[in-house]
User: Fold these one by one.
Assistant:
Number 1:
Amino acid sequence: MSELKGACIIGQSGGPTSAINASALGAIEAALDNPSITAVYGAANGIRGVLDDKLYDLDKEDRAELSHLKYTPSSALGSCRYKLKDPDVDDADYRRILEIFQKYDVRYFFYNGGNDSMDTCNKISKFMLKNGYECRVMGIPKTIDNDLAGTDHCPGYGSAAKYVATSCMEIYQDARVYDIGMITIVEIMGRHAGWLTAAAALAGPYAPDLIYLPEVPFDMDTFLKDTQVVYEKNGKAIVAVSEGIHDKDGKFIAEYGVSGEQTKDSFGHTQLGGLAATLAAIVKEKTGAKVRGIEFSLLQRCASHVASQTDLDESYAAGKAAVDHATAGTTDKMVGFKCTRDCGYLCELALLPLDIVANTEKKVPREWINPAGNGLLQGYIDYGLPLIQGETKQEKENGLPRFARLKKILVQG
Amino acid sequence: MSELKGACIIGQSGGPTSAINASALGAIEAALDNPSITAVYGAANGIRGVLDDKLYDLDKEDRAELSHLKYTPSSALGSCRYKLKDPDVDDADYRRILEIFQKYDVRYFFYNGGNDSMDTCNKISKFMLKNGYECRVMGIPKTIDNDLAGTDHCPGYGSAAKYVATSCMEIYQDARVYDIGMITIVEIMGRHAGWLTAAAALAGPYAPDLIYLPEVPFDMDTFLKDTQVVYEKNGKAIVAVSEGIHDKDGKFIAEYGVSGEQTKDSFGHTQLGGLAATLAAIVKEKTGAKVRGIEFSLLQRCASHVASQTDLDESYAAGKAAVDHATAGTTDKMVGFKCTRDCGYLCELALLPLDIVANTEKKVPREWINPAGNGLLQGYIDYGLPLIQGETKQEKENGLPRFARLKKILVQG
């Protein structure tokens, strides 16, 4: 394929992670060094920055300062949860994006995010193709949910999983320290897929006694019985639950006992939260035990101080590969990982069609969950353990993380 | 003073921390190496282990395995919150303790804990003195609350403070990432003293916009106005609150809007929690903004993976000093720290009378809090920053912390 010269836009979208900036750095550094790319722009708050003509001039950033991005959590360029309409219904946003691409001669678009972001990426790619505007569009995956199809795992997952496993180990030590009974319920992110909650099992002998994923319908009576059995045997019980656990009718357990009010985000997803507190109240009422609910909240996705160096290195490589492949002629693909674990862990980059990835959710295989649906089997451990290896090389300043301090100078359009 | 030969008991009490086992290790290693000490026992679950004649034989532990205690969170010997009665009212517990001490020829008693534990320690010391039983009793401080009188700071505080400052930095990155308004309320432990909440200020440019400590009466209207001002200016606001904030009448804010039920622990303290959720609901109602409440919960006291090495080293030294001083003749004292910060940070060990330390709470000085009562001044930063220096040397195994695995063999009495 012939060389395509032009500017590039890099955008970040969806919930931030500890590793999304590592991918951004991989893409930014590769773009800055690539002669086909004439200018490197960062979209302020993802696709919203394109629509609003708010682009950062990344050529103006200091290279040494940029390099700290690898160890800076959250999305340095800002994120959004804006959902593009179906172009067959309303193509106004797409025409605006095309206008901006033409204005800045953008020939490369790199979008870094989860399912919804790959959907955005896919729609833009198809629109540009249909309208004959030559622009190479590449998706760079990112999600602590680890639910993107086609890839062995997703950038961001390993770091979040390391946080979850580490914190579960620490909670195990703490929650069992008194000579009185105690049930601890830990709520972990994951709306439809239980990958992150499964990571609690990586804590091995310090793992929660019971782990519930949304892959298996949650039955309150069975859960209460399971918990009671462990509690009566040990005087303690630690239970990990995915925020998205739901009963056989699909009703979220987080909504049990909550009277009325439900909120939905702009993608139409029900906003979850408060599950640990809800379950704690139910367990307390049924067992009479002392119960504590713990929600990892934002920390599970932004605790960069305990990021997996494997995850950061792979995330960086994914960002770099997106640029390298695009400038070499590839378009309409997402960078993914193809891994083998038979003779040690080996991870290779792969290119996946965007339309297959977009909006397909990959679940934890049922055969990795025990028959009772309250624990993980060795299959998952073998899968997950390599992803959390390596301590972050994050630089410290005054005993605290040193984050990238970018200038973020807006392009005067 | 003449040499006193006999066994020693080491006990841990109160809420666990990331550093209490470092102090235990300092005491255990010094005791194992000291010729005056004939046997080294660990009390199972603090003073309860003495009362119940449940002692671990620490001479039977592997020394290399023991050394991992320095990096193992929570209380390895188990903890309790048992409160001894006033010996003038009911001395049954004290007579039982004396009986056990006589049974095992215990001549050294080291008790590792916070205010209530120093009170226990003090009462035992005075009872033994009064009853003419020669036993040297030493307190080893520990509390993430940092509220023990007489000492510059307390073992455990630096590590918890490092967790709080680090997590606040990460939350700052995450909570500001979207292009929509958001108010984040972070709840940090601290019943009567705001030391740990103050540590949020160590995050510097990434610190919460507003920080409220229990040292200043909390006024809901002023708080709502403060928050609104920040939110209207920045579109975001991050607020840190101490769990113990209360209004001018002494009513805990956590109890606002909570109908009825209040629980108290065995020391008569009101059990707090749910403050972040309570405040989030109030702020949401008043401002209409999207509000998120985050509770650090147990993690702030057990997150050993982000412990301060300074704290661990000092905690170890405090445990060792207790044994060294006791065998040299000292009794009825707590080991404390005397520090200077004028020409760099310098920390020396000091011996403090137990009865002064017991049950006196040290608060954050008013002059370190800004006049508005919603932020910290440089005086606190200069105080706190040296305490969070140094990354933990915790060993990792398979990408996760390597905790001590003790045999904990019970002494056959």
Number 2:
Amino acid sequence: MSMPRQERALEVAAAAGAEALLATQVSTVTWLTGYAPPIETGPNPWAAAPLALLAGDGPPVVVVSEDEEAAARGLGCEVVSYSGYGLGPIETTKHAARALRTALDGRTRLATETGTLPVAFADGLALVDVTDKLSLARAVKDGDELERLRRAIHVCDAGQAEARRRAAAGTTELEAWAAVRAAMEQAAGGRFPLLADFISGPRTAGVEGPPGARPLAEGDLLIADLVPRIDGYWGDSCATLCVGSASPSAWRAHTTVHERLERLLEACRPGVRSGELDAIAREGLRYPHHSGHGIGTSYHEEPRIVPDWETVLEPGMVLALEPAWYGEQEGVRLEWVVLVTEDGCQLLSQHELQL
Amino acid sequence: MSMPRQERALEVAAAAGAEALLATQVSTVTWLTGYAPPIETGPNPWAAAPLALLAGDGPPVVVVSEDEEAAARGLGCEVVSYSGYGLGPIETTKHAARALRTALDGRTRLATETGTLPVAFADGLALVDVTDKLSLARAVKDGDELERLRRAIHVCDAGQAEARRRAAAGTTELEAWAAVRAAMEQAAGGRFPLLADFISGPRTAGVEGPPGARPLAEGDLLIADLVPRIDGYWGDSCATLCVGSASPSAWRAHTTVHERLERLLEACRPGVRSGELDAIAREGLRYPHHSGHGIGTSYHEEPRIVPDWETVLEPGMVLALEPAWYGEQEGVRLEWVVLVTEDGCQLLSQHELQL
């Protein structure tokens, strides 16, 4: 029995007049198959990026190097593999292209993501790009996806709690960061990819950035935006903490941003356009970025919460909501993740937001 | 004035009858331009992978989203950028393809890496695949590359020293690991991509793996293989430590592996084929993997040190040498990085190897 998201993927392919869907973005491969390839160290020099094929008559087929085969098995998919890293000559592209031909089994009319399909694999194929349609099809989550997202958000909660424990005068950003990531790894039971902003003091006015050698000082704000990928699904979370007592302007900004976030939770329900949420978020605030975004196998995905965006909320969508305020010398951003339900939304994040 | 590696790249393109070289692997882009894109969180959902174009009549041209533009500037390259993440509609593939056309400026006969060039960018281009030739061209390092490699190896040294301090009974792999990475981040001044094996006890017999919840116990071996990417270049290093007193079999294995590594350092000089090094490394040992490899903008690259490999060592090549031994319940691997000089080699790694 195929999952609802696989049905939606097949509809996208059928609407494009294709015989099958060929997923080429890592995030779409994970979405279709559950297989979460390693990403932390960039492209594998000895393997092509994984591909996934879905046709109406069987389970998804994953095309990976034999080094990834064990990880890709046991997910209800077929696996077609090609030779991986070994002691002899290696011809990755040739072997991967051949494995794809095996998986295609004579099919040539494909709906695919042409921005990430290597030209070396495309000979003789008739391709229709469905990147944008897949992006929308991925917005509503299945039950097993929600379970993975909850696990990822639990890891965020652990990191945010540790950030609160470590935000002390004299500690450098990098020292606090190392403790935060260690706490998240403890919660996850191992390593995982982690996108993050971890900035303090005047750096918070700059919206984003990695931790550096700067020591925290009394009165500093610290923005901790923690975005781990656990088992292929991204969590997201942001809090703004203060080392000691906050300035009056920081208090005011924090109060307004927090209020906007609460207001977003009230407004978030099926039928609302994401652009309407964006307008609610920005009332009385100023920030250069989105007011939020879907999360799933990408850390930013539909529905985008930006001005005038027309995506209509549906039950099963998972949104990260992140109103913010940035001044000359300090910034505040707060982010919680919610699940859109039949008649409103449910808060998935458990981390605290107080200054 | 172009760098020696750019001259070699142009020779590869000319030999293929091409008007220009189009680099599409992240590692080749970094090699040609110095630009090291972020890789730790997988493909950017709002940007195509970076491209670099080199023709005879000017500096390399980097094609990136405007979100990466600042990082790509100041490297002696031209930058052609396309719109990045923003509040309005985003059409990454279309805009990136258009930016590439701008960079190509009418050129269509290109030497390239077809295994990583998106099909959406290839319309109307006449492509010759030169992946293998570029791989060989990258093996000899320029002076600025050596400087970056030395910095990456310095970060390895810091991690290995910390592993030695933290390998104590009762500490879990994950706890020791967090301290090791924190020490490396201190040495580097920030975050960086990090490939690693960090395994203890019977897990060392399994060659590779990430740190887990296993507590270290008296008599355990710990394999710490630390491979950071600093500013686009990968360091590499491996030591095998013992918590307390090692078993006689571990001592014997360690002594033999260490001896082989010393022997490799004596043998390593211009004119030697890498397959000869491999044979020297394996004498009296058994392991399923290579005996070493080049490092640079990829963590594994030419010269591969595997049986019968014909690549001939040249001054300026940088090799990671890693003989090993794996038994039923324990394993030992030692790895140092050397620079091939005019008449031998120079040890770049500074970390200790004793058990």
Number 3:
Amino acid sequence: MAMEKAIEKARHTGVALSAVRNSNHYGIAGYYSMMALEHDMIGLSMTNSDILVVPTFGRDSLLGTNPISIAIPAGKETPYVLDMATSVVPRGKLEVYDRNEKTMPEGWATDEKGLPTTNAGETLKNLAARAGGGILPLGGLDEEFSGHKGYGLALLVEILAGVMSGASFCDQVYPKDESGKALPAQLGHFFGALRIDFFRDIEEFKHDMDVLLRKMKESRKAEGRDRIYTHGEKEYENTVRHNKEGIPLHPKVINSLKEICREMELEYLL
Amino acid sequence: MAMEKAIEKARHTGVALSAVRNSNHYGIAGYYSMMALEHDMIGLSMTNSDILVVPTFGRDSLLGTNPISIAIPAGKETPYVLDMATSVVPRGKLEVYDRNEKTMPEGWATDEKGLPTTNAGETLKNLAARAGGGILPLGGLDEEFSGHKGYGLALLVEILAGVMSGASFCDQVYPKDESGKALPAQLGHFFGALRIDFFRDIEEFKHDMDVLLRKMKESRKAEGRDRIYTHGEKEYENTVRHNKEGIPLHPKVINSLKEICREMELEYLL
């Protein structure tokens, strides 16, 4: 509703922003930003989230993986859709490494002392217990590879989605009462829509978008690489394939769907 | 002028964006975003720039270091001022390593094959000759540490500052005629201003900003670290010190100022 409102208002004013408070799990950031595409607008979407990320030089996870998504239409090319956690990796990546008992690359996470760790299982355990350590911001540990920039982007999302909206932020987005019982979530989101034709003729804009995106894709590849992507291409190609061939489901998901069907006394039809 | 116009328009509409084309060197991105602070607004500023950055999996530098700056007022705390190149490091860092004949950390740049290099001098030479290779986007090489996110942010700036403004982009921002002679620069910039009190009471907002920024700064430090910064703090403290004690100048800068004075037949008074 907040994204629809931003699009509706931007139709008249050229640009509109909206914020949400008292919210719960966001789903996919790109879902909202992409709503702007069919209106020839640029869409913006971001949310704060459960604290998993440590600030640069910090020991405790204080920030969410706080995703930012921006969607921008093109002409014949796939629209540009950035949809990124502001951490170096999302939590799900650590869970995969833990399940497969794989060693993480150094630079993804820190241990309870705030020092680099390659142990995904320990990191997840420390996060759950709030024992210290967590996922590093985009750019990694300290300032050598500019971890302070990812930390800055995570903080930006916390400000716009959490503070600007009047929602909660940091450790207060999933509040608990004194006995430790979970209270309703207090997440915040931030949306925007921007009419391109207030700046430029929309066909000229789309033409130049195609030129820019092709410049990336058609340029020379690094040794050992055979393709350069633009943002949203992989997901677009998956969508086309899944619309045609169906969506592959993990056996565990199928079992859980069957389980739900039994519980609800429904017929499992897949 | 474009930033002033955005601030002026935002006074009436809550939010305003502006773009500039046919421009030249930008100076400091944070200078423009910070103009919004005294109006209790959030300021946004970005520019495209000379091509130094390679896209993920690419061999050629196609994007600028494309800085983004966002300034947000706080109460008693230093305002949040993010001012970041979307590359892992700016070009100046490579120049310092080259001058001091230091080996760069692996993950800052690639060579003419698009493979990691630690040689700053070679990288700068290759960039000047457009021989291939360049500075890596924030997140570094390939997708392991999410270099595609920095590449996405650099592309975003190229779109908003370059395409949206109707300026040039990529290799066309510093165009040359057929003989190789430099033509006027065609850079583009993008600005925004946002009235906070259209969302929340400004004093409540600033109070919560202070709470959020202190949460970062007062949290436990990683082992071996004694301070957590928020964005803009270091620069703010330098400004205060330099206003009091004067601005330290590199001997080379002093010599060049003296040289200019002689050329212009002016007295050197420092």
